[in-house]
Design goal:
The structure is a single chain. 44% of the residues lie in helices and 20% in strands. It is of the alpha/beta class. It has an 8-stranded mixed β-barrel with strand order 1-2-3-4-5-6-7-8, surrounded by 4 helices. Strands 16-17-15-20 form a 4-stranded antiparallel beta sheet, sandwiched between helices. It is globular. The chain starts with 8 loop residues before the first helix and ends with a helix.
Length: 586
């Protein structure tokens, strides 16, 4: 009896393409700060058994037989249709859609035609919600042409992610060339990162790169609790993997267990990761010390101090209140000498305790406590400091720890600050906004962005361009005073976190003040015409209005902010709408 001839890979592939046997599944990309869904990676699965069990094998077969475009087209339509069928859920999640694209396909005019605004709008998806994942695994033949293609998609408001970082041909060079919006860390880096010093160090370095470049990281392939906790500790912004959620046909959130771990680990990450001095609380570096009741005998205290050579001293506490302290140095001095022990061993500790000690609240900033501590008299200059919460004992801090942390803060602030304006950068901005989201107190978050800045920069040069940016920075600093927060995202983008209720015409007052100063940088002729002539992004000559400011805001006066990602996404939408409105009016 003859064996039944099995279909070849080519036969299987042609069947998949002809009958469109692709089913999309969606795996959540989760914020490792708050557990919310930031996006979904769309993956393709063969919907009929007996064909391709391994999807990568199917794509390799398509490339080998020059059918990759046809296969990608089937996959893309299935993905967009899958999202459209869950449009309400997708819109509600405010998530982005990550789509894997081969560099070879990206150049194709047919692919470009398949991702026009008209095409994607048919499926109810805005182009700004779509992220193309460009794999690092493949060599790109014509780099310059590829960069032009990438820029084409960026101009259409698509975003770009570099996939599989850590396995590819060009590594960081490709990131620096393409300026993507996201970088995905390959599973080979993420796997067992908690026990691999090399992987830990590599990801730590990438986190630092991410913070300085403003390009968020997405860790792929998270499969264990330890991996997740380590990535949170390192500061990776987003994660993806079976431990967070498996790919499903339906758009699902992060599983409850992983969600709780993310929340718990972030609550443990106190504001010690925050680089702003105002919110760097002293309670985060407090340590425990021996607490005793006021009637304990001195000989018992001395015995304890002799056994615990690392102890800084003792706090005398009654009903949670600190009545006095006794440092190691003062205790040994009083109990030493020829008659010290004989005179004091049977006395109660409260009799010899120092009642004039430095006590601070846990929510006081490290910088303010350091200043107070160093202003003490010489004989108590290096005594430890008692930290309380609502007046009740919490712990102690040493002067050494205070000074060390103050230096770290200064260094971190210098690293995070924008070199042009001196304002805090992205890390501090994020933490400041998160603080507003968490505490729920009345707050308005402003986003300011310059209009027609590129044209001004092209005509008048970078030095004048920097001067324009500094004008806006100075105006925002002046209006913020000492009470409000101002941050510089980079380029011509600024954020102000205004605690309380700003004036109704706040953004308009910023615009007026800015234009009054910035327009003086133009030539008399350009001011008279109220416009300049420059090349647009496509190299075409165009007339541009004088530089101005777009300011948008989001307040929690009538409705809570939601998550950090929701705040950022809303501000981005508001800014884009405001700029479109300005263009239509002009």
């Amino acid at each position: 009896m003859n064996e039944i001839e099995q279909p070849s890979s080519m036969d299987k592939l042609e069947k998949v393409i002809e009958k469109k046997l692709i089913t999309p599944v969606f795996q959540p990309i989760v914020s490792l700060r708050d557990g919310g869904v930031f996006g979904y990676e769309a993956l393709s699965r063969v919907s009929e058994k007996g064909l391709f069990d391994n999807v990568e094998e199917m794509f390799r077969c398509a490339e080998k037989n020059e059918l990759i475009w046809q296969l990608e087209q089937v996959c893309r339509r299935a993905i967009l249709k899958g999202v459209y069928e869950q449009k309400e859920c997708f819109d509600e999640s405010k998530a982005k859609l990550f789509i894997n694209v081969s560099p070879r396909v990206l150049h194709s005019e047919m692919f470009k035609a398949g991702f026009t605004r008209q095409y994607t709008s048919r499926y109810g998806i805005d182009t700004e919600k779509i992220v193309f994942e460009i794999t690092e695994r493949e060599r790109i033949e014509r780099e310059e042409s590829f960069i032009e293609t990438i820029n084409h998609y960026k101009e259409q408001d698509y975003m770009i992610a570099i996939d599989d970082l850590g396995t590819g041909y060009s590594g960081l060079k490709r990131i620096c060339t393409l300026f993507p919006q996201f970088v995905k860390l390959d599973i080979s880096l993420v796997r067992e990162v908690h026990i691999s010093p090399t992987k830990y160090a590599m990801i730590k370095g990438m986190v630092e790169f991410s913070e300085h470049s403003g390009i968020p990281l997405i860790a792929e392939g998270i499969e264990t609790k330890k991996e997740l906790e380590t990535l949170i500790k390192l500061g990776v912004q987003y994660g993806q993997g079976f431990y967070l959620a498996r790919p499903e046909k339906e758009l699902r959130p992060c599983i409850d267990e992983a969600y709780q771990i993310i929340l718990e680990n972030n609550s443990k990450k106190t504001t010690s990761n925050y680089l702003g001095v105002k919110r760097y609380y002293v309670k985060n570096i407090a340590i425990s010390a021996l607490t005793v009741p006021p009637d304990i005998k001195m000989e018992n205290v001395l015995s304890y101090m002799e056994k615990n050579t690392e102890a800084n001293g003792i706090c005398i506490v009654e009903n949670g209140r600190v009545l006095g302290v006794l440092t190691r140095e003062k205790l040994l001095r009083q109990m030493g000498g020829r008659y010290g022990f004989a005179l004091h061993h049977n006395r109660e500790i409260v009799e010899l305790a120092d009642k004039n000690f430095l006590q601070v609240e846990g929510t006081d900033s490290i910088s303010s406590v350091a200043k107070i501590a160093m202003e003490r008299e010489n004989d108590s200059l290096y005594d430890f400091i008692v930290v309380c919460e609502d007046g009740k004992y919490l712990g102690i801090v040493t002067v050494q720890d205070i000074l060390k942390k103050s230096m770290e803060i200064d260094v971190d602030l210098a690293k995070s600050s924008n070199p042009l304006t001196g304002l805090p950068g992205n890390i501090v901005i994020e933490e400041e906004i998160r603080a507003c989201v968490e505490d729920g107190n009345p707050c308005t978050i402003f986003y300011f962005d310059l209009d027609n800045f590129k044209a001004f920069n092209d005509v008048y040069g970078f030095e004048k361009g920097d001067e324009v940016i500094c004008i806006l920075s100075d105006i925002l600093k002046q209006k913020a005073g000492n009470k409000q927060f101002v941050g510089h995202i980079g380029g011509d983008d600024f954020v102000m976190v205004y605690r309380g209720k700003p004036a109704p015409d706040f953004t308009e007052s910023v615009r007026r003040a800015f234009e009054e100063k910035a327009h003086k940088l133009y030539s008399i002729e350009d001011r008279r015409k109220n416009c300049i002539t420059a090349c647009n992004r496509h190299g075409e000559v165009e007339v541009f209005p004088l530089v101005s400011v777009t300011g948008v805001s989001l307040t929690n006066e009538n409705e809570a902010f939601g998550t950090y990602d929701e705040v950022i996404n809303k501000l981005a939408v508001y800014k884009k709408a405001a700029k479109v409105k300005k263009r239509l009016v002009s």
